[in-house]
Each structure stands twice: as C-alpha cells, then as structure tokens.
C-alpha cells in the first residue's frame, strides 16, 4: 500500500512537471475561458471526473494545474465542486455496465485498470519515438497520469483481501448513524477511492441488498473521507494556492455532509421519509441514485457560496511571508490594467515598467548564480528557482498583455514599441534561464565534490564580472530608453567574445596538462558558454532598441551587426578599444589589440 502511495505521489510530481513545461498560451487561455465563471468550471470538473472515474485524481489534476499556473485558486473552485458530482457518474456506469462485458464497450477503455497502461504506453511512445514538437511534454504528462493511476490501483489491490470484512463493516450500523459515518470514512481512508467504496456497496446491494437507513450515513462518511484523503496527499510539497484548492474541497464536503444530515433529520421528522422509504431495500441502482443525489443536490445549492468558500480558505491558508522583491513583482503584475488596452500608449508604459522589473529580477538571479561559485548554498539554489518561476510569470503576463493591445494599435510608433517590448521581455526571460543553467552547472560541481582549479576560478571570477557589467548596462539601457547607451553595448559584447575565447584556450591547456579533470572541465566549459549567451542576449536587446527608432536596422539586425563589426565606425572602434584595454588588463589576459 505504501508502494502504491509512493507511485501516486511520483505520478503527481511527473504530471506537474509536464504541465509546467507546457505552460504556453493555448491551453491556459482555453482553461481560463472555461473557468472564468464557477458554473462553467463546475461542468468542466464533472466532465473530467466522469472521464477518468476518480474525483481524487481530478482534484489532484486541478491542484497540479493551479501549481503550474494554468488556473488561479479561485478559478479552480468550480472545478472542485464539479468533481464531487462527476464521481457519482462512476456509480451510474457501474450500474449500467455489465462487469463481464468485453472490449466491445467504449466505457471499457475508461476503466482505471485499462486507462493507466494506455496512458503509460502513449506517454512512452511520445517521449521515445515521436521526439518532435511538444510530444515530450505531452508524453511526460501521460506517463505521470498513468503512474498516478497505477499507484491508486496498487493501493486498492493491497487491501482487496479484506473485501469481505469491509463489506460487513459498511452494512453493520443501521441503528447507529455515527458509526456508519465512521465506517464509510475509515474504509475510504484505507482504499483511497470513494468510487471503489461505493462500488463495494453496490456489489453488496446486488447480492444481499442494503437498506436506505443503513447506507446513507456510510455514503456521507465516504464523501467526507474522500476529500480529507485528497487534502492529505495533495498538500505534500504544495504551494499556498494549491493547499487552498484542496482546503475548499474539504470545506465543501463538510458543509454538504451537515446539509444532508440536517435534511435527513427534518424530512424524517416531517414524515416525508416514512418507514416505507427509510427501511426500503436498495439494489445497485438504488445505491448509485442515493450517492448521486448526495453529490448533486448539495453542489447545486452550495455553488453560489463558492466566493465565501474561497475567502474562508484564504484565511485558513494565508500566503507565506514574502520578501520585498517578491512583493514588488506581484505589485508590478497587478499594474497591468486591462482597462488601459484601448489606450496603447498608456498600456505600453505599464508593460515597459514590468519588463524593466524583469531586467532587475534577471540581474538578481545572475548575481545569486555568481555567488554560488564562491559560496555554494542549497538555500540560494531554492531562491534562484523561485525567482526564475516569478520571472516566467512576469514574461507570460507581459507577453499576453502586450499582444492584447494589437487591435487598438494604430500608430506606427506604438507598433514599433509593441514589437520591441515582446523582443525585450524574451531577452530578459532567457537571461533568467541562463542564470539558472549556470547555477545547475555549479550545483553539479558541488554534488560531485570536485572544485575548479585556482586558475579556472580566477578566470571565471573575471568572466562573471565583465558579463555582470554588460547585463547591468543592458537593464539600464532598457529603463532609461537611451539610444546612446544602447550603442555602447555591442562593443562590450565583442570584447566579451574575445575574453571567452582566450579563457577557453587557457582551459584547454589546463586540461592537457592534467591540472583540471574531465568532469570539472565540462562544467567550466558550460558556465563559460552560458555567460557568453547572456552577453549575446544583451546585444540582441540593445540592437532591437536601435531598430525601434531606425527602420533600416529593424528586421536586419544580423546584417547591421556584421556591417558594424567590419566598418570603420569611429565611435564603435573607440569604445571597443577602451573596453578591450580595460578588461584585458583587469583580468590579466594578455596584450591589448
């Protein structure tokens, strides 16, 4: 059973990683449209749960989508309520479908024991054989989905030998509703599947029959325990917004349980539930109907209260303490006012402010990656990953916002500014990725316990310094919107190319002399390559800025740079020589050109 739980958790992790890698625009936009209103999210949750026959898995999937940024916490609430209804459809399928039916039925393929291996097969084919487009990411999601279900199946199989005892427990409390509630909750907590427990009830009802008074409390217990089980599993390693999602699931089911219990008491006292109904015998279909009513009616009645559920969950699960940098980032995200899209000039000013902040975040992550070289700290690694995630969110939000202005952009000036901002935010986002790559290379060195040689460390320290200078210059260029400063970036980038070339040659000498081992040498080479790419992104951004005001450069950036490097442009040559002299002397790399 613990092995099954481990598979379940790992499947959830793999699926979440795949979803994060697929965090493009199309799927997120579709989900946002569907979940913009709780009622539509409710229908989506019911449909997804019906398809995969597990509210537990549907909730976990929703939590993964929230964590991956596809959904906000409040958008997920409708899906959560819908998932509670969708799981009742499984009981109806069990009622209608012959257990001995062959593969001729379409529903056969939606059985968990068939769906899991099919998902695994599809995922492996996409990862290992298709190898193009988004196949790897989709395959990762499918594999995670399959492993998740295999874990659920394994947990259920582990307790299958207790089936007779569990069946007797579920029907032995006709006179004690509280114990019936505990029985349903206890069995569900063990099996980790409300659908499986309801299936057991249906099997008992089909063979020996059960009475309404003996089963309604059990079903309530099943519903509550199912939500608590999903809460316990899904909150492991989860973010606050993910924990709020499963907290709403628990709050809703507790409210639904109280609502049903009160309704039973009132209807029984009023004589609506007379002895004929109260002690009536139920077959498999009767159990399915009762379960469906207990899921559907509270959901419909409580759906209008989804806002109150959200506020309560936010109070119960507050945000983690946030440092000043994260608070600034979120404030900048909130400044992207959708009401300004009809005034492109004002909207572009807002997005420019956010993109400038992206430059600051990328610079901070670069500095943190540089610090890892001299004092590696796992906590700093975690902070770099958090900052990179925030940078991705900023890039996604800024890109969507700037693109959304297109129908309202009429002036050529605004059009050029719009195009430039899209290119600039891409540069800063890639610089953030490169900083994280540098951190990963240093993490590999730390894990293997193989430090770089003193000479290699000296060279890297110098390379980090000069690349830091061009990155800080580029951030300032974007914020100040200064074309003169923009022209100073390319001469420094060319000097950095020469510096990296010299350092690579010195590295080869160390390798051949045996003063640097192969593993450390590879990481050193990777770090230099990523540093060079950071300076390339800085060059790209500066040239894009020049192209915004000079139409002869726009779209011809590569040609412009080629001509500039081979021209007698006095200003360019002067800045190149000054930078060459400054940094080659500072880094003791050789004679000046």
What report would you give on this structure?
By secondary structure, the chain is mainly α. It folds into 3 domains: 2-316, no CATH class; 323-449, Phosphate transport system protein phou homolog 2, domain 2 (Methane Monooxygenase Hydroxylase, Chain G, domain 1, Up-down Bundle), CATH 1.20.58; 451-593, Phosphate transport system protein phou homolog 2, domain 2 (Methane Monooxygenase Hydroxylase, Chain G, domain 1, Up-down Bundle). Helices cover 79% and strands 1% of the residues. It has 25 helices and 2 strands. The protein has helices at residues 2-21, 26-34, 38-52, 55-68, 73-96, 112-130, 135-158, 163-170, 177-191, 194-207, 212-234, 240-269, 275-278, 284-302, 306-316, 324-334, 344-374, 378-404, 412-448, 454-480, 483-487, 489-513, 518-549, 557-565, 570-586; strands at 210-211, 281-282. The chain has a two-stranded antiparallel ribbon with strand order 1-2. Helix 22 (489-513) packs antiparallel against helix 23.
